[in-house]
Design brief:
This protein is of the alpha/beta class. It is about 35% helix and about 20% strand. Helix 7 packs across helix 9 and helix 8 packs across helix 9.
Length: about 300
C-alpha cells in the first residue's frame, strides 16, 4: 500500500498507518516540539508504515520520546510493543486501568478475538511492552517545547479507559474513538460501540463535555483531520450515535435485532465496495453487537 503522509499545521503531521491493510482507515499523528511524540500506533501490522512514515518526515524512530495511546483496543494500541524496541527512549502513555494488558496481552487478545470476529485476523498480534516503559495518562500534561503542549482529556464511553488529547496551542483534539469515526473514503460518519465495555451514559457525558470545550480542530484516528467545524461534527456524530442506540434498542426489546438491515441503514448510499468499505461495514456490525451486549448487561443488573 502506498504510504500517505500529510502536514496538518506547523507541528503536527499525520501518517496513514495502513490499518487493516487498507487506505484511509487508521492515522498515526506525529507531534514535534523540541521533543517528538506520536499519537496512536495502529496494530502491530501497522508498525512498518509508522516507522517508514517517521523516516520520510526526517525523524529517526529512536528520537521519539512519547507514545500517546487513547485506549487499549488493538487498532489504537496494538503496535506499541512492536514499536518500543525502535524507540528506546520513549514512554508509552495510556490509562492506568488497562496498562496491564500491554504488559501481558493474553486477555486482550482473547477479548479482541471475541469482539472483532472476522476482522481479528487483520489486527496482527500484540507484542508485550515492558511495564517500566508505561506511564499513567489520566492527568498528563506533556510539554514538548516550542509552545507545543499536549493535555489528557478523559473521554469514557467507547471504553472506560478512553482518553483524548488536546494540543493546547492549536486547540486540536486527538479524538481516538471518543466521539465516533469519520471515514472520508466511504463517507461514513457515525458511532463505533464495540463490546464488551461501552457505556451509553458515559458516552453522552463525553459528548457534552467536548461541546463545552473550545476546540478548533478534531484529529480523528479513523481517519485524519475533520473537514468541518468541530462543533458541527460533534453534534452530527452525537445524532448518529443516538440514532444507532434507538434502532438497536427497539430491535432488542422486540427480540429481533436485524443486524444486516441496521448496517445497511447506517452506511452511506452508493459507497464503493472495496476493502475500506468492508472494514467500515464490519465496524458498524461490531457496534450493533456492542449495544446488544450493553442492553443485555443492563437487563441482568436490573434483574438482580
Amino acid at each position: 500500500m502506498e504510504l500517505h503522509i500529510a502536514q496538518f499545521n506547523d507541528h503536527i503531521w499525520y501518517v496513514d498507518n495502513g490499518l487493516l491493510g487498507a487506505p484511509g482507515l487508521g492515522t498515526t499523528y506525529v507531534v514535534r516540539g523540541d521533543e517528538i511524540a506520536i499519537v496512536e500506533t495502529g496494530t502491530s501490522l501497522c508498525a512498518p508504515q509508522v516507522l517508514d512514515g517517521l523516516r520520510r518526515l526526517g525523524v529517526k524512530p529512536s528520537a521519539v520520546r512519547h507514545i500517546l495511546l487513547t485506549h487499549i483496543h488493538m487498532d489504537h494500541a496494538g503496535g506499541a510493543g512492536t514499536l518500543v524496541p525502535h524507540m528506546p527512549e520513549a514512554t508509552i502513555y495510556m490509562h492506568s486501568r488497562t496498562a496491564k494488558y500491554l504488559v501481558d496481552p493474553s486477555n486482550l487478545l482473547a477479548s479482541a478475538e471475541r469482539a472483532l470476529g472476522d476482522l481479528f485476523a487483520l489486527h496482527g498480534t500484540v507484542d508485550p511492552a515492558p511495564a517500566e516503559r508505561i506511564a499513567a495518562a489520566e492527568e498528563l500534561r506533556l510539554d514538548l517545547g516550542r509552545g507545543v503542549v499536549v493535555r489528557a482529556i478523559p473521554t469514557p464511553g467507547h471504553s472506560p479507559d478512553h482518553i483524548a488529547y488536546l494540543e493546547e496551542s492549536s486547540r486540536s483534539l486527538f479524538t481516538g474513538d471518543a466521539i465516533g469515526i469519520t471515514i472520508p473514503a466511504t463517507g461514513y460518519q457515525g458511532p463505533v460501540t464495540p463490546p464488551p465495555a461501552i457505556s451509553i451514559d458515559q458516552q453522552r457525558d463525553t459528548f457534552e463535555r467536548l461541546l463545552d470545550m473550545q476546540i478548533d480542530a478534531l484529529l480523528f484516528t479513523h481517519f485524519g483531520p475533520g473537514r468541518e467545524s468541530p462543533r458541527l461534527l460533534i453534534e452530527r456524530l452525537r445524532e448518529q450515535y443516538e440514532r444507532l442506540v434507538r434502532v438497536v434498542r427497539e430491535g432488542w426489546e422486540l427480540g429481533n435485532v436485524d443486524h444486516a438491515a441496521i448496517t445497511r441503514a447506517m452506511l452511506p448510499e452508493g459507497a464503493r465496495d472495496d476493502r475500506t468499505m468492508l472494514a467500515t461495514a464490519g465496524w458498524v456490525a461490531m457496534s450493533i453487537n456492542g449495544l446488544v451486549h450493553f442492553f443485555e448487561r443492563q437487563a441482568r443488573k436490573q434483574g438482580g
